[in-house]
Amino acid sequence: MNKLSNELKFRILAIISCVVIVIGMALGTVLHFVSNGFFNYGGEYSSYKSITVSYSIVELNGGDVDIEGICADVLDASGVKYYAKTNGSSFSDEKQIEYRFSTSVDNSALQTAVKNINNKLKEVLSKYIDGETVKAQATLAEQTAELGGGYTLWRAAVALAVIVVAQLIYTMIRFRFSAAFTAIAIDLHNIALYAAVLALCRVPVSSSALVFGIILTLVTVLGVTFMLERIKRNAKENANIGVEELAELSARQTRKTNIAVPAILAVTAVLFFVATAISSLSVIPALIPMALAFTSFAVAVYGNVIVAPYVYIFIKNTGKKIAAKPSKKKGN
Amino acid sequence: MGKVKSAIITALLVAAIIVLTLFATISFGVSGSNDAFMMNIPLGSELAGEASVIFYPEGVIAEAKYKSDIYGNTEKEKEYADKYEYVESANVYVEKDKLYKMVDGSEVDARDEFIVGIKADAALLAERFGDKGYSSYSVTVLNGYLIKVSIPADLTYVQAGLDDATLRNSAYAIANHALNYISVEGALSIRSEETYSDTNALYKELDLNNPNKFNSFFKGASVFQRAGTYALKIDLTDEGFENMNKILTNSSDGNAYLYAGKTSLQLSFQMGQELQEKSLYFQSTKDSSEDYAILINSIAHGKMLTNAYSDVDNENIVISSSVAGKNAAMAVGIVILLIVVLAAALPIIKYKLLGLVNALMVLTYSVALLTAVYLIGIQITISGLFAAVLGLVLLSFSNFFTFEAVRRETALGRTFESSVKIGYKRSMLGIIDIHVMLIVAAIIMTLVGVGELSACGLIFLVGSVASFVLYWFTRFMWYVMASLVRDKFAFCGYAREVEEDE
Q1: Less Cβ around it within 10 Å: N or C end of chain A?
Q2: Predicted confidence (pLDDT) per residue in A250-303, tens digit
Q3: Cα dihedral A69→A73→A75→A81 (10° resolution)
């Protein structure tokens, strides 16, 4: 890659980004009409099957029944694996355990599990509660998720647009037009690439996707502003330096930071993943936020470290070419 | 600066951080004292769980309720047997009127139509609850006939840990209001009494051809806030303003009440008094104002539920633990603690005692952020914690960037004071640029975004402002603490490459 000219490098990177963005957007659009949506909705947006065990805490004659343990044993014996479990209680202290299963799990296996849980609970509780109705029951349900949040998404899009405009204005004042256009181009590139990668790789999208999109924007703002500041300082200190050398030097000086910031956030994501996986004794609930975090940080590194310097060179050279055109005409 | 002065300032700062950290993290078992304030920060659903409720459409009852209603009552048993049909796939009893309808004198199956209506209602509820800006929420159709709505329970660490309904009273009340009012079915109307009846509609005096026409009198509703007081602001159209005045001046007695369907929104007007403005203000809490605004906006834009749904009371709200487990908040808290410890300790390896100055700033940042989050009352989610970590990264980055700039100057053979001065001067503009841009972005996120986005923006705003202030404070403490030692280059872990001129 080092032997290639900067213009060629820019073209290659532009093609790679455009191909990913176009294919991602196209695939998302097609799947929006023929399948389950532009993105692969997961987390709180996903449909699932559930077995809910409801019970009241009753005074037991000489025993303590581990209802959760009984249910876990029966589910294990029935061969159905849940991916998440929640423990709930109502105001009147009715307890509820909800086991969540993927929609692909066979209904008949779940029905058998429900029947087995009910039989087992009846058998165990009858030993302690004489002549009373056993107050514990499992039910099967299929929960089809509905998507909402259009208003939140719209406000996030407005916030993103205002941030981009604010950055344009600030970089125009503090730096130059070429710097401002570079900042905007990288902002838009990173956001479009993030959305396209989510659509293309079918990374499960939950409400966290929006926040990681905005954190990506903040990391981009930080990285690009840092690089532009270095470019300004290097240009001031080396008056005769060429555009390409200037961009490469500044990119080199900021590379460590531009990799370190997303890397630290990625390590944080891994630590959160480990913590929630230990807490839930399952890796699945924590997988979605971690996948989203990694996607956004990978895009940040690619956009800020690899693409940004070449975009700056391209914009600067294009600006020079545009500025040179009228004088050529005059000369002719 | 003298060594004594330096020692006193350093000791005071360390003592202040320790005291604040103690108040933030440790509960004192003294009667009447509050818990540590980090225990009272509201947590998002992925950390502390969610409040959920199952809505039964009118004409649908649970199997358990059906059985308890007919228990020992043969008359009722017969009545229910005639009225309801059991739907095994959903474990519910559904009124036969909902499942069948008469077409050309013959009974046809209408359950698909009924199910489609419920699905459409779920989509509308998802839209309405989405407008509330929750950090996360879900609306699901349960077995085709019921709707389950889950919203963050907004519990603190203490409330989440103790499974006790009385401790969670406030959480139930907020969830109850949102779940009840956002899910109201029916058109807007104005009525003469606080209790609904078919005959007390005042808008009927306007001779509207279509009762839904009354909805179009409302342009929209929003939450109005001034000096910490919240109000619901309802904007009327020109036609609405004129017609509301006609209704209100028709009589000089009593009050008129705004309804959505059969539900009173507890918003009253004085009869006999003409409205002066097209914008009406009703003082309420923030949460209640938001709920009313969402409902009124939805109905005013012609989006009404197909079916009426069961009322929500505390008894049928279930507060569940997070899918990440009962101890998710504690596990994530340990991770944050680990990150703070690493951010404080690792630089000490490279920068020796200067790393200790940085460690003090990291601890100050952490305690300041925790205090701000508690005082402002921001709900903490995992995304919010990422924003906080990003602020910490910004502070550390600013400091290291400057430390390296100073190191470069010392390598050129400058004196310690001169190196610090020039190092700060050379790195200052870059640090200011980055902070200004990020603070602007955080302000935009806070003001323009809603829900979790706004909360993240606010956390990051506090974090980036704290980072900028502490960046300057680092310089002060560097000066103060370096006064305690003779070899200032060794204090910073810098190797001198050129001998200093005496």
Answers
A1: C
A2: 999 999 999 999 999 999 999 998 998 888 888 877 788 888 889 999 999 999
A3: 90
Q: For residues A90 and B165, give the distance between their C-alpha atoms in angstroms, rounded to a whole number.
A: 7
Give φ, ψ of A128 to 5 degrees: -105, -30
Residues A76-89: pLDDT tens digits?
Answer: 999 999 988 998 88
In the block, tokens 């039989």 appear at A119
Among the partner residues B130, B320, B330, nearest to A98 by beta-carbon distance: B320
Is pLDDT above 90 for A165? Answer: yes
Domain covering B3-42+325-492 in this structure, CATH number? 1.20.1640.10
ipTM of the modeled complex = 0.86
Residues B424, B475 contacting (CB under 8 angstroms):
yes
Residues in chain B predicted with pLDDT less than 50, given as ranges, are 500-502
Query: How many A-B residue pairs are in contact by the CB < 8 A criterion?
Result: 242
Please name the member of B324, B438, B450 whose beta carbon is closest to the beta carbon of A222: B438
Q: Kindly state the tokens that stand for A271.
A: 């630590």
Tokens of A226: 């840092």
pLDDT digits (tens, 9 = 90+) for A170-184: 999 988 888 999 999
Contact B140 A88 (CB under 8 A): no
Domain ranges of chain B: 3-42+325-492, 184-304
Nearest CA in chain A to B130: A149
Domains B3-42+325-492 and B184-304 share a fold: no
* A272 → closest Cβ in B130, B139, B335: B335
pTM: 0.85
Residues of A in contact with B330 (CB under 8 A): 279
- Closest C-alpha among B402, B430, B428, B407 to residue B419: B407
Q: What is the pLDDT of residue A129?
A: 64
Strands B279-283 and B263-270: unpaired
Q: What distance in Å separates the CA atoms of residue B488 and residue B111, rounded to the nearest whole number?
A: 83
- Which of these, A147, A167, A171, A170, lies nearest to A159 by C-alpha position? A167
